[in-house]
Amino acid sequence: MVTLVDMSHSRDVRLRPAVNADARAVRALVFAVLEEYGLAADPGGTDADLDDIEATYRARGGSFHVLEEPGGRIVGCVGLFAVDAETCELRKMYLEPHARGLGLGRRLLDAALADAKTLGFRRVVLETATVLTEAIALYTRHGFEAYTPEHLSKRCNLAYALELKPATAPFSHRPPGN
């Protein structure tokens, strides 16, 4: 479990694996952010993955984390959905409005990318919508590049991919030639 500290507001937030008991709060967060940006929630389709977070993400080889404030209020989330053995999809990366602009989105993305490497994925893909300009800027700063997928969910019109660099081997103290 990673603890992220927001020094600018002297407030600790904690990133932890989500459990199904978090589903209601996660849905409320995701649906509120979608509404804020004029995007439609799709509880019977694109957002059905939130009905059973543990089975949809962790049991399939991915992960789902929530960011919570002291007292347990969930203010952010991010998921990695296993597409295949080498590719995962970054899903449901959202923050409440008061948690934005504090570097928490970058920290969520950094944690998700580290998790993707740990889980053995070599590629991360994501779908997003043009109106999510802050998220798109964050993704491109992290090296995601636009690509054309075979399919996009109803509310998304853009897709990005990032090839993960393999972990570097630790420095070897062997003499040259050995």
Summarize the structure.
With 178 residues, the protein is α+β, with helices and mostly antiparallel strands. The chain is built from four helices and eight strands; from the N terminus they run ββααβββαβαββ. It is 24% helix and 28% strand.
Descriptive report:
The chain is an alpha+beta fold and 178 residues long. The protein has a domain at 2-123: Gcn5-related N-acetyltransferase (GNAT) (Aminopeptidase, 3-Layer(aba) Sandwich), CATH 3.40.630. The protein has four helices and eight strands, in the order ββααβββαβαββ. The protein has helices spanning 23-36, 53-56, 104-118, 133-141; strands at 2-6, 11-17, 63-68, 74-82, 87-95, 123-128, 145-146, 158-163. An eight-stranded mixed sheet has the order 1-2-3-4-5-6-8-7, with helices on both faces. It is globular, with a radius of gyration of 17 Å.
The CATH architecture of the domain at 2-123 is 3-Layer(aba) Sandwich
- Helix proportion: 10-25%
Q: Strands of the biggest beta sheet: in what spatial order?
A: 1-2-3-4-5-6-8-7
Radius of gyration over alpha carbons?
17 Å
CATH class of the domain at 2-123: Alpha Beta
Would you tell me the structural class of the helices and strands?
alpha+beta
Distance between the termini: 39 Å
Instruction: Please identify which CATH superfamily of the domain at 2-123 we are dealing with.
Output: Gcn5-related N-acetyltransferase (GNAT)
Number of helices: 4
Task: Give the rounded overall mean pLDDT.
Answer: 89
Shape: globular
For this structure, the CATH topology of the domain at 2-123 is: Aminopeptidase
